[in-house]
Amino acid sequence: MLHFVWVIIMNKAKSFLSYVFIIFAAILLAFNYYIFIIENSFAPAGLNGIATMIQYKTGFSISYMSLIINIPLSIFAYFFTNKNFAVKTLIFSVVYSFFFLFLQRIDIKAIQYSCNGHDTIYPVILSGVISGFVYGVCFKNNASTGGTDVISRHITKIKPNFNFFTVTFILNSIVAVSSLFVYSDGTVDYKPVALCITYCFISIFVGNLILKGTKTAYKFTVITTHPDEITEDITHVLRHSATIIEAVGAYTNQSKNVILCVVNKHQLNDFQKIISKYDNTFSFHELVNETYGNFKHIK
């Protein structure tokens, strides 16, 4: 009974923290737009990029345009994509919009990164990294920043084989081409397009990296006739466990054992040293992007 109550409490705590992370990400993205993007004449792609171009041409605030775009998209996502995803996306959009409006009202232009048309690549890189971090946080918590992210999520639901970030990049590239006609001021200037695509690539790369996780490890597959000795070393030297599978060699028709073990990156050499001690042993390893599950520590 106590265990059941504890599980419920932990689930509630994780749910609460996910909303905290989403609100933090929304505030961070508002700062990112205000400090690095608005004053440097490039569109950060997506529907928010369209909102940025509209503000550049008309002065109509990104805050209002974001709400106009994302409220209907969130309603659509609620009924046709995923309810939890839609609610969290709406919360993100509202917090982002109101905080960006707040930054505009208090007039803190002194902290804006304005390069006056020179070395624009630096704010693009900085804003791309920050946006990628925000995207990763949102996607990990079943949310999005709105706009094309919602469209991409719906497309990948209908077509599961489509890569989420690939769909997003294609949609963003279309918006990037549109920026050619907004920031060129009557002349053909491909710089806004190049900056937009660079921003997209950096933000998608960072977002994908965060989404995959940083808990990389190595999975060893060992075929051996010394399973007990090797697992003994793995347990006592590396403080890991392993799984032993009985097998038969296809060529010799002799009984073998297959050991599966996932170890930390810094233990790669130690594992190889263990394997090298035993004859009749063949091993290979693969990179594991992230590990999941409830693991017990070996004392």
Topology (SSEs and partners):
Blueprint: H1 2-37, H2 46-58, H3 62-80, H4 83-106, H5 121-140, H6 148-158, H7 164-183, H8 191-212, E1 217-224, H9 227-237, E2 243-248, E3 255-264, H10 268-276, E4 281-288
Antiparallel strand pairs: 1-3, 1-4, 2-3
Helix pairs in contact: 1-4, 1-5, 2-3, 2-7, 3-4, 5-8, 6-7, 7-8, 9-10
Notes on the protein architecture:
The chain has 299 residues and is of the alpha+beta class. Helix content is 62%, strand content 11%. The chain contains ten helices and four strands, in the order H-H-H-H-H-H-H-H-E-H-E-E-H-E. It has helices at 2-37, 46-58, 62-80, 83-106, 121-140, 148-158, 164-183, 191-212, 227-237, 268-276; strands at 217-224, 243-248, 255-264, 281-288. A four-stranded antiparallel β-sheet has the order 2-3-1-4, with helices on one face. Strand 2 (243-248) and strand 3 form a beta hairpin. The longest helix is centred in the N-terminal third of the chain and has 36 residues, at 2-37. The mean pLDDT is 82.
Query: How many β-strands, per DSSP?
Result: 4
Strand order of the main beta sheet, please? Answer: 2-3-1-4
Classify the secondary structure makeup into a structural class: alpha+beta
Largest sheet entry:
4 strands, antiparallel
Spans where pLDDT lies below 50 across 5 or more residues:
none
For the termini, the CA-CA separation is 28 Å
Shape: elongated
> Roughly what fraction of the amino acids lie in strands?
5-15%
Q: What portion of residues is helical? A: 55-70%
Oligomer state of the chains in this structure = single chain
Radius of gyration: 25 Å
The overall pLDDT, averaged over residues, is 82
Number of helices: 10
- SSE ordering: HHHHHHHHEHEEHE
